[in-house]
Amino acid sequence: MTIEITNESGVPVDETVLLRLTEHNLAQLNVSPDADLAILLVDKGAMESLHVQWMDEPGPTDVLSFPMDELRPGTEDAPTPPGLLGDIVLCPQVAETQAQAARHTTLDELILLTTHGLLHLLGFDHAEPDEEREMFGLQRELIAAFHASERRRA
Which one of 35, 46, 142, 146 has the lowest number of neighbouring Cβ atoms within 10 Å? Predict the structure, then answer.
C-alpha cells in the first residue's frame, strides 16, 4: 500500500500519526494492501480555491475527498481489490479552529477529518439521515479502535 502524505500547509503536523491512522483504518475496512492513497495538507487559500472549484461553495473547508477507482470496503474473505483510492485534502488551519470549538487537539481533529475523508473515498456519504448514522457510527468506531491501538503502542 502506498500512502503519500504531503504537507504544503505551513503548519507542522505529525504525519506519522496520520500514516498510522490511515494504515489502521484501511486494514479495519479490509482494503487491499495494494491500494494507493494520497493525503495533501494545504493552507486556507488553497483549500478555498478547491472548495469553490469542486463544490461551488465559498470559503475554505476542513476536508475534501476525491475518489478515483470507486473502491468500497471489503471483507476478511474478499478484501477490496488493488486500485487507486484517491486523494484526501485537509486544511490544518480550519481543523485548528474546529478543534478549539470542540475542546480537543488539532491532531485529534485531523484524525477525525482524515477518517471522514477516507470513508468518503470508500463510498460513504451523509446526505440522508440513515447514511449519516452509518458513516458517523463507523467513523467513531474506527477512531476509537485507532486510539486503543495507539495506547497499546505506548
Answer: 46
Find, among 150, 139, 151, 152, the residue nearest to 16 by Cα: 150
User: 88: helix, coil or strand?
Assistant: strand
Mean pLDDT of 41-67: 97
Quote the cell numbers at residue 148: 486503543
Q: How confident is the model over 135-139, as a mean pLDDT?
A: 98
Question: pLDDT digit string (tens) for 60-96?
Answer: 999 999 999 999 999 999 999 999 999 999 999 999 9
The closest of 107, 17, 93 to 62, measured between CA atoms, is 93
Listed in sequence order, the residues at least 6 apart from 133 whose beta carbon sits closer than 8 Å to its beta carbon are none
Element (DSSP H or E) covering residue 106: helix 106-121
Q: Which position has the grid cell 467513523?
A: 139
